[in-house]
Amino acid sequence: MPNLYFCVPKNDAVYFDEHEVTHMKVMRVKEGEIVEATDGNGGRYKVVLKKIDKSSAFGSVISYEFVKPLEGRLVLFAPSGRWERLRWTIEKAVELGVDEIYVFNNERASRHYEDKQEKLELVVREASKQCIRYTFPIIKTIEFLDIISLAPESTYILDFKGRKIPKRISKNVGIIAGPEGGFTQKELSLLKKKFKSVCLGKKILRFETAIILATGVFSMKLGKI
Predict the structure, then answer these.
(1) Per DSSP, what are the bridge partners of residue 109?
(2) What is the pTM of this model?
(3) How many helices (H) and strands (E) does the chain have?
(4) Which DSSP letter does residue 19 get?
């Protein structure tokens, strides 16, 4: 499996930060070697490494191509749970082809990550590199009510009392998952005024399990995996 590095392009060169240098050192990459890199916006670069310092590196671009993202749009709204569980959820969602991830606060998911944007983006970056994605998903923190304006028209609430996932779906799909304690009745009523609810089966699942299962199903339907 090829190793992919994240780069920042400038003119005919690309630059790598300390996280990528650490990756290079783990892989024992040396100056003069050719590596594959991406800017996270669809760019695929072949690069000759010119210099690797302790916390940065740069190289010359041999070739570039734009890798068009797969068709369809899959948006995930995930509750702001404990960091390890949220991090794992983000990683798997990236691997499964989610295009946008919104981490929201509500009455039962009140952890705040507004000041952790760089940390969230780094999780997305590392997961994208691992599964060789040239376009990195968007990730942002939002408030509960922001879901209404950001969600696609065909958005589904994961609800134990919901219906089965439809056989035919739109090419523009959203998934809303509640926190471990579920949404409050007021929150659920508000969401159900605009979105349909779906059930994943007979068992009550932890929020991260429900997210991965639902994401996998919708991703398969959209042809993202």
Answers:
(1) 106
(2) 0.93
(3) 6, 12
(4) H
Q: Answer whether 106's CB lies under 8 Å from 78's CB.
A: no
Cβ-in-10-Å burial (0-12, 13-18, 19+) of 146 comes to middle
Residue 67 has, within 13 A of its CA and on its CB side, a CA count of 16
Among candidates 174, 168, 214, which has minimal Cα distance to 194? Answer: 174
Side-by-side strand order, sheet with 73-79 = 138-143, 100-105, 73-79, 172-176, 154-163, 196-198
Q: Amino acid letter at 59?
A: G
> What are the 10-residue block averages of pLDDT along the chain, 225 residues in total?
89 95 95 98 98 96 96 95 93 97 88 92 97 97 95 94 90 93 90 94 84 95 91
How many other CB atoms are there within 10 angstroms of residue 82's CB atom? Answer: 11
* CA gap 143, 134 in Å, rounded: 29
What are the beta bridge partners of residue 5?
37
By the 8 A CB rule, do 207 and 79 touch?
A: yes
| DSSP character at residue 80 | -
The pair of structure tokens assigned to 132 is 């060789």
Instruction: Report the C-alpha gap between 112 and 82 in whole angstroms.
Output: 10
